[in-house]
Amino acid sequence: MKQSIVLSLMAVTTIATAGGIFWWLDSPLRAFEQTATAIKTHDTALFAKNVDEQSLIDSAMEDLVFLPVTETKWFTPIQHEAATTAVAVARGPVEKSLQKQLDAYVAGTPVAHTDSATLAAPGSSPPAESPSAATDASTGGTIDDVLHVAKKELRNETHRLKDIGYANMMNHAQSHPEALICQLIASDKVTRKSVIKERLEQYGLVASNFKGISSVQEANDVQNGGKNAMIDFKFQSPKVGHEVTVQAFLVRPPGGDWKITRVSNLRTLVAELEPSYDHDVQELASATMAGATPEMATQEIKGTAARIFNAPETKSFLKGIKSKLGKLGGLLD
């Protein structure tokens, strides 16, 4: 009798243990365990299996840069258009740089850096253009010569505006070190790493302040046929004096593994920990776009047009047309 009871208990324990193992292997929480193991052992393949780096970085850029900039209310229409375009253009290269740094961190390899400012300044001079074909003064230049001049002038103007914007941004960042975004931009790569570490400790987003998991929710992804999960991690924050929630979003495609894709509440979390963050980003963007007014745009367009029109290639081209038109060519004077 006793033996049968013991065997029954052993069977129940075995089944429960097996069930627990199968539950854990299928749980989205396992993705975090595997991610931690990957970082500890510098296993980049295991990290990539459990983290969607591109989605994680893209969503962070959206929440922390793109949305704050595009929601700046005091921009003029031309400043709003210029800022939105600038952020959209810069987004790709910045995200690639962040992914490269994240990969290096996981792999445990140092990222090359310099002791100068963290953000590389745009080239003060554009790439060298191949010279246009020699212009024959007797026959006049060609339309290709004129287009070449226009392309070169527009490229020069683009680089000039980038240089001005970069200088404005760095000046503002260096004069507002109290703002997180400015501190990160004005620091070199080594200093920035220390800044991030200090800030995370202030916010309480470190292992010693972890208070547990308050919620794990799974749902079927009707559209894609897989599953989604939302996990709430609690941390005690010295900065605000209470617990804060980090809400992680995971996706599992049909037949695939759980992958961490984004921090769902990143923007609200940053607003809770750094209430002035959005305003600081907008102030930085505004300083960067200083001078981007309709008057300046008109002046720049006129200046560029004048340089194109007065270029030797353009004059030669017009001279050739005039000679072909005869008396009607006087209309081009």
Question: How does this model look, in words?
Answer:
A hairpin with a 6-residue loop joins β1 (210-220) and β2 (227-237). This protein has helices at 2-26, 29-41, 44-50, 53-70, 77-107, 143-175, 180-186, 189-203, 266-273, 277-288, 294-310, 312-325, and strands spanning 210-220, 227-237, 242-252, 259-263. α4 (53-70) runs antiparallel to α5 (77-107) and α4 packs across α10 (277-288). A four-stranded antiparallel beta sheet has the order 1-2-3-4. Helices cover 60% and strands 11% of the residues. The protein is elongated and about 85 Å long. The termini are far apart. It is built from twelve helices and four strands; from the N terminus they run ααααααααββββαααα. With 333 residues, it is an alpha+beta fold.
**Multimer state:** single chain
- The helix content is 55-70%
Low-confidence runs of at least 5 consecutive residues:
5-24, 114-118, 128-139
Strand ordering within the main sheet: 1-2-3-4
Give a quick account of the main beta sheet: strands, pairing sense, barrel closure.
4 strands, antiparallel
The Cα radius of gyration reads 29 Å
H and E order = HHHHHHHHEEEEHHHH
Q: Overall 3D geometry?
A: elongated
Give the mean pLDDT: 76
